[in-house]
Specification:
Shape: rod-shaped
Oligomer: single chain
Helix content: over 70%
Length: about 160
């Protein structure tokens, strides 16, 4: 009987050791679970924040895309927003070119109106390479106030 009692104590101690080991493992797993749940919560918050930022970027991008005319051949093709945004610089350049041509035409029309005998053809060639740039800068200074008034009048007409 003493042998059985000794065997029982030994078994009981082994079981207590095993239970203690399992309890430590469970405690470690509980800590890991809490850490993982916190990571999931942090990732969820980060994802929500990124989604909000993406939504704001989409709105801002759409506003930029809407300001620029897309060429007629591209207008029929369905584009993703990023593809439309990639076409914006080209659209801006077209707009600037068109607007510049309109302003230059307007100014040259004014020159021709007040000086019908003026030969405007050499203006299309640009500045004569033999010209005095200092003199040209002086002329620019003289005409700047007039140019500003013309631009102001064009802006009022728009």
């Amino acid at each position: 009987m003493a042998a059985q009692s000794e065997k029982h104590k030994k078994c009981s101690k082994e079981q207590r050791d095993e239970i203690e080991k399992l309890q430590k493992m469970k405690a470690d797993y509980d800590v890991q679970l809490v850490e993982m749940l916190q990571q999931v919560k942090d990732l969820s918050e980060s994802n929500t924040s990124l989604q909000h930022e993406l939504d704001e970027l989409k709105v801002a991008t759409q506003a930029i895309v809407d300001m620029v005319d897309i060429s007629e051949e591209d207008a029929e093709a369905p584009f993703f927003l990023v593809e439309q945004l990639q076409k914006v610089p080209q659209g801006i350049m077209k707009y600037l070119s068109k607007t510049t041509r309109q302003y230059v035409s307007h100014v040259l029309g004014l020159v021709k109106f007040y000086l019908p005998q003026a030969n405007l053809a050499p203006l299309g060639e640009g500045l004569n390479p033999d010209s005095d740039e200092g003199k040209f800068d002086e002329y620019l200074g003289e005409v700047k106030p007039v140019a500003n008034r013309i631009a102001d009048s064009l802006e009022q007409d728009a």
